[in-house]
Specification:
single chain; alpha+beta; six-stranded antiparallel β-sheet
Length: 381
């Protein structure tokens, strides 16, 4: 069932946890809410679960006021980061718990509960584990038990609160793929809260980027990654790094170089923020007129080379990600000089209050090659 969230606000003293949040989740959609600690994502989840109440705003589910229902009547399944399994109960007893504590008139028969538990354990690939206790399971297995328990009552909305945060990297990666396929087989409306960019982009149909209680951007994983709408989204999702630059007379000026954009229509009073991604900083030969830089550090990680660079004209170092082939071809040691090229720059046009009006991708030229640009993507102020 679809969820419509409108103008949701939650404040704790002087701290605004949710500030005018608007979001629509389609029936059967898998939505990831992504943001750093304190961005408001868990406050949103707790309100949907009935564990907290907003100061203002509405939440509708197919025309029904979800906020008017207590937590037990909302049809919500909740999975926590730390499993919250009962250690003195077996796997089967944990999964059956939500059914067994229902009021007598709503409680299924014991045979029906047993059949439901067996069905769910088979779905989460834990049939044969019914009589084990949580302490006898791995972290990934315990998280699947927690998911089965949340699904036992046949919820209309599934809420996942950083469910992989307590797992090691390999188990987390395997469980991501498993949960995505599991969701496709169920088709249940799901809201997934995480601070892990890779997790959100890999799993979700759409990603909601939050910062300081507000939604910065909503879009598909590809849209969020390729076209971040704000400098925060660029830094947090695409790992964008700031470069000094300004726009004057439709000419972009960055680190001592300038190119005509040949595109009008942007208010010249708007300020400009320029970002570059680590993967868009590439080594070049001197003939290609790159930016001079000094190699500060080198780390070989999973088939890539992550380097730290001091680019002339910058106070802060830049991070770059190169292929092993590029690294071997240039053969530069730490402390030596190398020229680098910025393949793509993301340019944001913002007003004096920090509101973003437009963004554009700029591809600086190599040597005499012409500059290629945008176009400007206009955004709501």
């Amino acid at each position: 069932m679809g969820i419509d969230i409108s103008r949701l606000r939650r404040q704790f003293g002087s701290h605004v946890a949710l500030d005018d949040v608007n979001l629509t989740i389609a029936e059967g959609e898998f939505v990831a809410v992504l943001g750093p600690s304190g961005s408001g994502k868990t406050s949103l989840l707790r309100i949907l679960a009935g564990l907290d109440h907003p100061d203002a705003g509405t939440v509708q589910r197919d025309g029904e006021d979800l906020l008017a229902l207590d937590a037990r009547r909302r049809g919500v399944g909740l999975v926590f980061q730390h499993y919250a399994l009962f250690p003195h109960m077996t796997v089967a007893q944990n999964v059956a718990f939500g059914l067994r504590v229902r009021p007598w008139r709503q409680r299924p028969r014991a045979t029906a509960i047993k059949a439901r538990v067996q069905e769910l354990l088979k779905r989460v690939e834990l049939d044969g584990f019914a009589e084990r206790y949580p302490a006898q399971l791995s972290g990934g297995q315990r998280q699947r038990v927690a998911l089965a328990r949340a699904l036992a009552t046949e919820p209309k909305l599934l809420l996942l609160d950083e469910p992989f945060g307590a797992l090691d990297a390999q188990v987390r990666g395997n469980l991501r793929r498993w949960l995505r396929e599991f969701h496709r087989s169920l088709g249940i409306t799901t809201l997934f809260v995480t601070h892990d960019q890779d997790e959100a982009l890999e799993m979700a149909d759409r990603v909601v980027v939050m910062n300081r209680g507000r939604i910065e951007q909503i879009g598909t994983p590809e849209q969020i990654h390729r076209y971040p709408a704000t400098p925060f989204a660029s830094r947090f999702i695409a790992r964008g790094q700031w470069l000094p630059g300004h726009l004057k007379d439709q000419t972009i000026h960055v680190l001592g170089r300038s190119w005509s954009l040949d595109q009008a229509g942007i208010d010249p009073s708007l300020a400009m923020a320029v970002h570059v991604r680590p993967e868009d900083i590439v080594p070049v030969t001197h003939q290609d007129k790159g930016w001079p830089a000094q190699l500060l550090s080198v780390r070989h990680v999973a088939g890539t080379v992550r380097v730290g660079l001091h680019v002339n004209g910058l106070d802060e170092p830049l991070d770059a990600v190169w292929t092993e082939r590029d690294w071997l071809r240039h053969g530069v040691a730490v402390g030596e000089q190398i020229d680098v090229h910025f393949q793509t720059l993301t340019v944001f046009a913002e007003d004096s209050e920090g509101r973003i009006h437009a963004r554009m991708d700029v591809h600086p030229p190599h040597a005499t090659s012409p500059v290629t640009v945008g176009p400007w993507r206009r955004l709501e102020a």
